[in-house]
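TICKET: design request
STATUS: open
ATTACHED STRUCTURE:
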C-alpha cells in the first residue's frame, strides 16, 4: 500500500472527515512530511471508494460550497489494520537487524 493511501485511510480511522480535514490529518500524522493536494486527494478517494475501502457519509453546505464527508468501510478498516500490522512487523525486524549490526560493529 502506498504511503499516501495508508495515511488517508488512517486519517479516517477515527471517524468521518471532509476533504480539507483529511488533508490536515494526513499532515499531522506525517509530522508535515506528506502534503496532499486536492487533485491527488480526490483521485485517491475515488479509487478507494471504487475499491470499497471508503464511502461518502454525508454532505453539508458551508459558505455556499458543498462539503462531502468520507468514512472507512469495514473493508477499509481491515485494510488499514493489516497495513499497520505489516509496518509494525517490518519495524520490529529493522530494530532487530539494527541492534544486531551495532553489536557486530562493537557500538552497542
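STATUS: resolved
RESOLUTION: sequence designed for all positions
ATTACHED SEQUENCE:
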Amino acid at each position: 500500500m502506498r504511503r499516501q493511501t495508508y495515511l488517508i485511510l488512517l486519517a479516517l480511522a477515527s471517524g468521518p472527515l471532509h476533504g480539507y480535514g483529511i488533508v490536515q490529518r494526513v499532515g499531522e500524522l506525517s509530522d508535515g512530511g506528506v502534503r496532499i493536494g486536492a487533485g491527488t486527494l480526490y483521485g485517491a478517494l475515488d479509487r478507494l471508494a471504487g475499491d470499497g475501502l471508503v464511502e461518502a457519509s454525508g454532505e453539508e453546505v458551508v459558505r455556499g460550497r458543498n462539503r462531502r464527508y468520507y468514512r472507512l468501510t469495514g473493508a477499509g478498516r481491515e485494510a488499514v489494520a493489516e497495513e499497520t500490522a505489516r509496518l509494525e512487523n517490518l519495524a520490529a525486524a529493522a530494530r532487530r537487524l539494527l541492534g544486531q549490526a551495532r553489536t557486530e560493529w562493537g557500538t552497542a
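CLOSING REMARK: The chain is about 60% helix and 20% strand. The chain has a mean pLDDT of 91.
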